[in-house]
Amino acid sequence: xxxxxxxxxxxxxxxxxxxxxxxxxxxxxxxxxxxxxxxxxxxxxxxxxxxxxxxxxxxxxxxxxxxxxxxxxxxxxxxxxxxxxxxxxxxxxxxxxxxxxxxxxxxxxxxxxxxxxxxxxxxxxxxxxxxxxxxxxxxxxxxxxxxxxxxxxxxxxxxxxxxxxxxxxxxxxxxxxxxxxxxxxxxxxxxxxxxxxxxxxxxxxxxxxxxxxxxxxxxxxxxxxxxxxxxxxxxxxxxxxxxxxxxxxxxxxxxxxxxxxxxxxxxxxxxxxxxxxxxxxxxxxxxxxxxxxxxxxxxxxxxxxxxxxxxxxxxxxxxxxxxxxxxxxxxxxxx
Length: 335
Ligand code: NAD
Known about the structure:
By secondary structure, the chain is an alpha/beta fold. It has two domains: 2-100 and 300-334, Rossmann fold (3-Layer(aba) Sandwich), CATH 3.40.50; 102-292, NAD(P)-binding Rossmann-like Domain (Rossmann fold), CATH 3.40.50. The protein has 13 helices and 13 strands. The protein has helices at 10-23, 58-66, 84-89, 102-118, 120-128, 154-165, 179-183, 191-197, 217-222, 240-248, 279-284, 301-319, 331-334, and strands at 2-5, 26-29, 47-50, 71-74, 93-95, 146-150, 169-173, 187-188, 200-203, 227-231, 252-257, 290-292, 327-328. The strands form two sheets. A seven-stranded parallel beta sheet has the order 8-7-6-9-10-11-12, sandwiched between helices. A six-stranded mixed beta sheet has the order 2-1-3-4-5-13. α1 (10-23) packs across α12 and α4 (102-118) crosses α6. The longest helix has 19 residues, at 301-319. The chain binds nicotinamide-adenine-dinucleotide. Nicotinamide-adenine-dinucleotide (NAD) binds at residues 77-78, 99, 102, 105, 150-156, 173-176, 204-207, 210-211, 232-234, 258-259, 295, 297-298.
C-alpha cells in the first residue's frame, strides 16, 4: 500500500525501512506533523502513518478522505488524537500498535521515580561542578512505602510488579480489575483511598473525557502531603496549573513527567536556540523537584522494532482484507 508517514524522525525511517524489506509497501516520509494544513501532502496515499502529536481532527480527516486515504496507521498505543466518530463516518479504518513494549514505558516510570527520590539529576550536575555536598539530596527507602497505580493495563501491571520487587506496598485503581495484578497481592481501592494512602502515585490510564485532568486542584487536595507524582501516560491527565500550585504549597513533594498537555508545540524538536513561549511549562522547569523527559518512555530499540513491525503488518492485514486485532473503533470509547 502507498503509505505517507508523518512526523518522521531518522529513527522512524531506520526501523520502518528495515521492516519494509519483508513487507514491500511504498513508503514516503514527511517530516511535518499531520494537521489540517499538511493533510494535502497525503493526497493519493491509501494509508497515512502517524504518531502521538499528529492531529487527526474532523477537518484533517475530511481532507485525507478526499485525497483517497482509507487507513490511519498509528505507530503508538494511544488514540486520543483521532476523532474516531469522524473516521468511522468517512469509512477510514484506524489501526494502532496496542502493545510494543510495555516494559519500556513501565521501566521509564521507575527511572523517573528513582531519579526524583535519590535526586540523581541534582547530584549529576553537582559532581560536574566539583560540588560533593550531600545537602538537599536526602531520599527515602522505597521498601515499605505505598505506591498507587492508576490504570493497571499492560504498562500499569508491569510497573506494579516492579514496585512490589522493591518491597513497596502497592495499591491499584482501575474500573476493570487485572487478575495478574491481584495475584501479586495488590489491592484494588477506590481513587480517593489511593490518593489518601499513597506516597507515590503513577498514572497509567488512557486519556479519555473521564480521565481528562484526573489530577486537578481537588484531587491534589486529597493527595498525601509530599506525594511523588509520575505521569508517563498522557499530559492532559494532569491540570498543569493546579500542579504548579500543588508544588508551590509543597502538598506535592516531587513530579516526574514524560508527557505534558501542550507537548505538541514542544516535544520531539530541538528548540534549544529558541525562547520557550509556554509559561506554564517554563515554570514547571524551574522546580528542583520536577524532572521532565520529552515523551521518551517508549524509546527503546525493542519498542521501535515492534512498532515498525506491527504498524506495517496492520496495513498489510487491512490491504489483504484479513482480520486485524489492532483495529480501533468507537466501540472502545463506549466501554
Ligand atoms: P492499556 O489499555 O493496556 O491499559 C490502560 C488501563 O487503564 C486499562 O486497564 C483500563 O481499564 C484503565 N483505565 C481506563 N479508564 C480508567 C480510569 N478512569 N481510571 C483508571 N484506569 C482506567 O494501556 P497501556 O498499554 O497500559 O498504556 C497506558 C497508557 O500509556 C496509554 O493510554 C498511553 O496514553 C500511555 N503510553 C505512553 C507512552 C510514552 O511513551 N510515554 C507509550 C505508550 C503508552
